[in-house]
Amino acid sequence: MTASFKKVGTDFMTDDLTPSPSSDATAATFATRAIHVGQQPDPTTGAVIPPIYLTSTFQQDEVGNLRAGYEYSRCGNPTRDSLSSVLADLEHGEHAFIYPSGLAAIDNVLRIVLHPGDTIVSGVDVYGGTHRLIDQVWAAWGIHHVTVDTTDLDATRTILENTHPKLVWIETPSNPLLNITDLTAIAELTHAAGALLAIDNTFATPALQRPIEFGTDIVVHSTTKYLSGHSDIIGGAVVLADDSLLEPFAFVQNAAGSVGAPFDSWLSRRSVKTLTVRVERHSANAQLVAEALVGHPAVAQVLYPGLPDHPGHRIAQRQMSAFGGVVSLVLRGPESTAKTFSESTELFTLAESLGGVESLIEYPYGMTHAATADTDLAVPKTLVRLSVGIESVDDILADLTQALERAQR
Ligand SMILES: *Cc1c(COP(=O)(O)O)cnc(C)c1O
C-alpha cells in the first residue's frame, strides 16, 4: 500500500514553503506552489515537464523490490501522484486522492465514512448529482439522508442534535443558488455533534477558499471544473485534512479501483499552474457581469456573493479572497423567458458544466438539477446559471444584453 502514499518530486517547495494555516505567507506563495509542487524536471532526461506515465505496470528488479514504490497503476502512478501532491498542498491537506470524476470522489467519501444505519446531513442546495447519489444509490445500503439550509445555523444545530449524523456535507458557494455557509460555524456545530465535515470546494477552488483552514475534515473537488479549467476532462479529488482517514481511503481506492487516468491527471496538473490567474479573471469578469445586470428590466434578481446586498456577502468576504466565476440570474416573466434567454446567447454556449475558460450558460431546473425537479429541493424555474469565462468582458456583457433583449420580446 505504500505506493499510494508516494509523492513524486515534492521535495522542492513542500518542505520549505508549506506554511502554517491562514498565514499571509500562504496566500503569497500560492501561485508559486501551484506551478512547482510535484513538478520536478525528469531526472533521466532533464525534461522540464515530467513525462506522462502511460503504463499499467512497473518492472520489479526482484520479487517485491519496487524501484520507486510503484508496482501497478491502480495502486499508484507517478502522474496521478503529481496531481495529488499539488492539490493536497494547495488545500493545506495531508493527502489527496484522484478519481475519474467528481462523483466518484464523492462516492468514495460516502462509502468510507458511512456504514448501514448511519445518517448524512447535507445542505439543501448541493449539486443535484450529489443529492441523487445519496438519495437513490446509498439509500439502498441503509444510509439515512436529511437535508437542511446550512445558512441557517440554528436550524442546522437542531437537525444535528436530533439526527446524530456521521457526516455533514455542504457546498459554499452552493450550486446554483450561490448561498454562503459560515465555514467556521458549521465546522464547530459538526464537530460538537461528533460528525465529520465534508466541503465540496469545486466552485471556489483553493485559490479563493481553503476550507481546511476553517476546520473542515474532507475537501472534495470536481476537477472537471476550475481546477482543470478547459472543459476537456472529467475528474475528481478528495483532500484529507489529516492522516486519520488516510489508510481507509488508500485501501478502498486500490481495492475498489476508482482511479484517475494518467493523461487526465497530467492535463489537470498542467491546468493547475494557471489556476491563480484564471480564477482571478473569472472572478473579476463575474463581478462586472453581476453589477451590470442588477436593475436590468428583464432580471428579477442577481445571485452573486460579491454583491454587497447578497445575504452571505460578509461571510464570503471573511472566508474567500474573491467570489468566483458563477453568477445566477432569476429572470422576470414565465419560465419560457429563462429558457429563451439560455438559448439566445452567441458567445455563451448552452451546456452543462462550469469553470472552463469559455463562458457557458445553462438552465438548472431542466439540466444540471433535473434530478431534484420534482422534489421540494427544486430550483426556481426562472433561474439561469452563468459560468462567466475569461473572454473580454465587453464581449461577455454585449452577448448577455442581446440575449436578454431577445428573451423579453
Ligand atoms: C460538477 C460537479 C460535481 C460532479 O463532478 P463530476 O466531475 O461531473 O462527476 C460535484 N460537485 C459540484 C459542485 C459540481 O459542480
What can you tell me about this protein's structure?
- The protein is of the alpha/beta class and 409 residues long.
- It has 15 helices and 14 strands.
- The protein has helices at residues 2-5, 11-17, 24-36, 78-90, 102-113, 128-137, 153-163, 183-192, 205-208, 246-256, 262-272, 275-293, 313-319, 335-342, 393-408, and strands at 60-62, 65-66, 95-99, 119-123, 144-148, 167-171, 196-200, 218-222, 236-240, 299-303, 326-331, 349-350, 360-362, 383-387.
- The strands form 3 sheets. A 7-stranded mixed β-sheet has the order 3-9-8-7-6-4-5, sandwiched between helices. A 5-stranded mixed β-sheet has the order 10-11-14-13-12.
- α5 crosses α6 (128-137), α7 runs parallel beside α8 and α14 (335-342) crosses α15 (393-408).
- The longest helix is centred in the C-terminal third of the chain and has 19 residues, at 275-293.
- Bound molecules: pyridoxal-5'-phosphate.
Strand content: 5-15%
Task: Compute the separation of the termini in Å.
Answer: 62 Å
Q: Compute the gyration radius: what is it?
A: 21 Å
| Global outline | globular
**SSE order in H/E notation?**
HHHEEHEHEHEHEHEHEEHHHEHEHEEEH
Mean pLDDT rating:
93
Ligands and ions found = pyridoxal-5'-phosphate
